[in-house]
Amino acid sequence: MRMVVCFLLIVVLRTNSLSLPWNSLLSFPRLQVRIMLSRFNDTSAPSALRADAVCILSRLCSNHKDNQAGFRRDGGIVSLVSFTVGTISS
Length: 90
Fold this sequence. Notes:
This protein is mainly α. Helices cover 72% and strands 0% of the residues. The protein has a domain at 28-78.
C-alpha cells in the first residue's frame, strides 16, 4: 500500500496531471507525511526515490501548518539533519 501511494504521488509530481492541491490527494495529510518520511529514511531505497520523497515532503509541508507539525512530530527534522551531517562528513 505504501509503495502504491508513494508511486502515485511521484507520478503526480512529475506529470502535474491533476489540478488538485497537493494536500487534497488523500484525506489523511499526516499519513502522507509519514509515508514520505519512511521512504526517505529507507537507506535501501535508491537515492532518486529518496530525493523524490524529500521533494514531496517539501510540497506537502509548504504553507500547511498541520503537515509541518506532523513532520516535526514524526522526527522529520532529526532525519534531515542526520542525513545532512552524515553526507557532509562522508
